[in-house]
Automatic annotation (TrEMBL), chains A, B, C, D:
Pfam family, one: Chorismate_synt
Pathway linked to the protein: Metabolic intermediate biosynthesis; chorismate biosynthesis; chorismate from D-erythrose 4-phosphate and phosphoenolpyruvate: step 7/7
Cofactor(s), names only, from the UniProt record: FMNH2
Species classification: Bacteria, Pseudomonadati, Pseudomonadota, Betaproteobacteria, Burkholderiales
Protein name: Chorismate synthase
């Protein structure tokens, strides 16, 4: 209710601030019997971790996760899994000069008005650092989904500022610090980022996420539609300003005879639906696209006001990502996994025992 | 949990099917003491109602709402408000020919797989007719928000198929059946719709919604961000495939020095944020844009399969909107109102007694 | 959140006031495919209905239920089931004389302070009439539980005022207006009630409820324990002031060597646990006992104050049950059914696929 | 949903097992601005702590709490407060001999059937040790309630086995290890406990809790009645088998003319209601009474079965409380505080702005 818990049957309750003693979460509702170790979680955390290339924030956080509960003799017990990550490299002094001013584009102003108290150190609770617990929880969700349905969830960078990135291969995504699915574009991206850093500015990005091998039938009829919950989860990621499913905004200029994916015995012909019809999964790949705004913390001086209501100029000298979209792919994957596992459990609650004679047709060839 | 309830403190639980005896909802959590009559609700229902021009479905539904509870001597009592709308013009026989086949682009296939039972009459529960109860509930939310904060929520048609519509004036929106904010474009839209109808095809649309006079501080920090909840509410509207807040997908190609709205004593300079920073309202107008796919029910024959898993050709002869986006503005307004009232009540629960000395700066002049 | 919805996966949202146009509920989360007709529900409503003997209120309400949604061709569809009961015999004028005064023992005073608005007609929303929608919803739950597990839920009157009623037979319960499980005590009960009515007074009661053939494993570990949810559901019934599970308050004077039910291959030896250990069902009968206070609306003049803060004397001349416990058995059965179905669905969500080699031992022979 | 979270607006999500690395909770929804330190919480934890007298378990746990988040510069920020308690004295080997057998009266059997996995070490998640996080969270709730309304919540031991304890004074409660409100009875209690320990047996208890200075108007109308939520919270405490509000089971033999508390300008006359009418607080003291069963882990050999379905004899040699009721008072106080703060916040959400001219009359003199 206070906005720190995600999900209904598989829930993630996060806690912590960017520069407090620790961050973490309690994962509740994970089915018992799943093999789980800290290594399973660490892999995904490492993909999101800061400080791994010169193109992201230089804050050094090992982000080592500790499982405090819910696992016994290497398996989940069905009780809450508590995950703890201690903060290490919190240089709060970097933020001393902005303690009283509101940074344009930042949550400073709104937190101040909402809570009447402001933890100015690194953005406090509004920091993107708080996506780490979600990534950790998402790792558990992914493992379970893969074991149950063979579900594979992968994200990639589709555009950095003006540079659109062609999709060449999933294999390439893990080979470069941009999560770009094309090797040829890397030098261009590096030059672009270096120039931004010199200019003390930042840029936006588009990240795509795809979930394959999702069972048919996930999602609720009116208000917890699968695509609605995906939109909620994605728009809730720091800096996201737009979400598309399937054809997305492109569907505005489509005709019905073009958009509606036909069905044949070989499967759906096309996937304008993005794997969701009437809010419920079709069995096709779920395809999602995100617009991520440019980082607000930049070294360019900007006009603002302070907590006393006086004019102020603000520059941010802390360590920041010049393009927050770069580390967004693992976060978006985790959020998609968390939405899917929640709906998979809801489906199980509601519909066990329902037998449909029609076989699910194969997923789209697209 | 079964996806028929919206909201946390101001909740709307809907029921009904397109061709069942009735549709309606229970609105719970409305503060006591609000003056409320059926007329207050009917006004919004009438804006969404079918059959009002040749450009929308010809189904004749008066959509008369009856208040069954929660209002005593003209005021809300704080207890559940039950709203009932009887279905009148349910010509189920129109659907007999598609009872066994799945319509491309429709929820038929997914409902069948989810529930093992299919109410083929007019789409059953998946019909856009089920947005009527939300519009009714939204009318209550709007009235309360306006009384408390002066909040005004308005939507308009921004694009029909390839035809982008310039924003000329709010006044124009109510004067034409397209909710278009420009008089000059109407003949073009009419010709376009007539042509589509002749072709037995349909088209997509873009609808924008704006909420003005929203108090600063609404929204939760991590998972029930105001923009996340808006994305959820909007993506849950039938046929919506994309949602943007503020600069939306345009922010991909912006620089941080351009996107981050500066603050001055006269207010924010620009509104790329769309009225939300860090998931919390800034006091500026909330601006949302939706992509709506073309209607799936068209008279063009399309390939599909039936419940027995056999190939089938499907044409839809029922009464349908050639552009479902046309009636979407009042629905989007209602959904935005429902999200805002829920957050306004949550804010009240959490933060009463917090006093911030900084005055909220004026809303953006944009 | 506003206290009008029960359950998590199988939810009941009620609406209505004692003297408004209608009462009813929306049942959400009922699994699809259950055969359901209005007759299935009417049977339970008729057992709770007023006016059926001289020992209960003489208000004449047929309590005919109408199913407005969620059932298609005689089976549930998995979408919300809306149930409507029109009020018929609302003699609001009976309450005119108490419109401004607070009746001792009644919710008048607290509703006035909570809502600032008071529907004085028959208690408005606080009336026990509002248990009717729960009984209707409970009928659906019972039918599903019986079909899935053979669960049988039955309640009976165990004590009326000072008169303890021996348990002789379940068959007897349906044969008298008191739900008493013993024929011999009926004349004594009738004389007692007649005397109370003459005296213009009322009395308390104890009602017991038993659920047999409940599967092992229902209930959550810490906060939604099965017995906790039962206590919540029972204490929420109008006029209930105490709830016991199994040995209840008798366990205070037991030793551990007496209370802890031993296990043998033939089953548990005894059922002090009342079918719940560690908050989770054991497979034994669930046994619950309720204390129900005497009706507050009596013809005896009593001291009170009015809405202006002035002293007042209050007598209640409306039609009232002299012992509200008399009609409580079907209500308690319904509440128990609603708790059990909710936990059965939760269990399914969380634990499908878990295989335990230990067979569940037979239920206790007690 | 998985039963590890309590509350709606002020939520407590607990984690941990009796013999895992740590236990703790995340408290969400605490209003910002409350002064809070670890000492505030430690005081209540120390009252519940084991090993403080020879009459309770000898397990040595300092139960030192660490605040990981949600507090900045000595005040709550409105974001989640994470509380961590490391387990120290976990002698799992004590439990080796019962790893395969089910202890009569214990959750072993039901956890095994629910989860298919059993953490046999000290009861795992079902251990009463898991009440510590709730006590810690309750300390925060109490501090806030006291600051807002002057609310005081106190519990005491009212009966140990057959020994009823007269209420002499609140001051006495803190002076003896039994939380007994009478000094004279202490020698008798000590002798009784020593005898039980020699016999290898255990006994039940009655604990009473009272909340004074509770504002009028807390509680919801139908399903989240204040007394229903209290019953839920109390029945969820380990070993509780019965809950009473006000006159409780005594109301069965009362007449309406006796039970219904009259109102005068000086306040309510009597408090049979226990501070709740129609599920909503009256402003009088909330009075609750609990039946606590005798400890199940005793040194007396008892019949059972094992996980293979074979007969077994079980004796428990671990360190256990001979009367779990002894440490129950601080737990019951915490649960009552958690229910009250949740309803106080809900009340604020729903009813701010409602002005009632009738003054709340003074609390009962009883």
């Amino acid at each position: 209710m206070s906005g720190n818990t995600l999900g209904h049957l598989f829930t993630v309750t996060t806690f912590g601030e960017s520069h407090g003693p620790a961050i973490g979460c309690v994962v509740d509702g994970c089915p018992p019997g799943l093999e789980l170790s800290e290594d399973d979680i660490q892999q995904d955390l490492d993909r999101r971790r800061p400080g791994t290339s010169r193109h992201v924030t230089q804050r050094q956080e090992p982000d080592r996760v500790e499982i405090l509960s819910g696992v016994f003799e290497g398996r989940t017990t069905g009780t809450p899994i508590s995950l703890l990550i201690r903060n290490q490299d919190a240089r709060s002094k970097d933020y001393g000069n902005i303690a009283r001013s509101f940074r344009p584009g930042h949550a400073d102003y709104t937190y101040w008005h909402k809570y009447g108290i402001r933890d100015h150190r690194g953005g406090g609770r509004s920091s993107a650092r708080l996506t780490a617990p979600a990534v950790a929880a998402g790792a558990i969700a992914r493992k379970w989904l893969h074991g149950q349905f063979g579900t594979v969830i992968r994200g990639y960078m589709a555009q950095v500022g003006e540079i659109a990135i062609p999709f060449t291969s999933w294999d390439e995504v893990a080979r470069n610090p941009f999560f770009a699915p094309d090797a040829a574009v890397i030098p261009q991206l590096e030059a672009y980022m270096d120039e931004l850093r010199r200019a003390g500015d930042s840029c936006g990005a588009r990240v795509n996420v795809v979930a394959e091998h999702v069972p048919v039938g996930l999602g609720e009829p009116i208000y917890d539609k699968l695509d609605a919950d995906i939109a909620y989860a994605m728009m809730g990621i720091n800096a996201v300003k737009g979400v598309e499913i399937g054809a997305g905004f492109g569907s505005i200029v489509q005709r019905g005879s073009e958009h509606g994916d036909e069905l044949t015995l070989q499967g759906f012909v096309g996937n304008n639906a993005g794997g969701v019809l009437g809010g419920i999964s079709t069995g096709q790949p779920i395809t999602v696209s995100l617009a991520i705004k440019p980082t607000s913390s930049i070294r360019t001086p900007r006009r603002s006001i302070d907590v006393g209501g006086e004019p102020a100029m603000v520059e941010t000298f802390g360590r920041h990502d010049p393009c927050v979209g770069i580390r967004a792919a693992p976060i978006a994957e985790a959020m998609l996994a968390l939405v899917l596992i929640d709906h998979a459990l809801r489906h199980r609650a509601q519909n066990a025992g329902v037998h449909v004679s029609t076989p699910a047709i194969p997923g789209s060839s697209s």
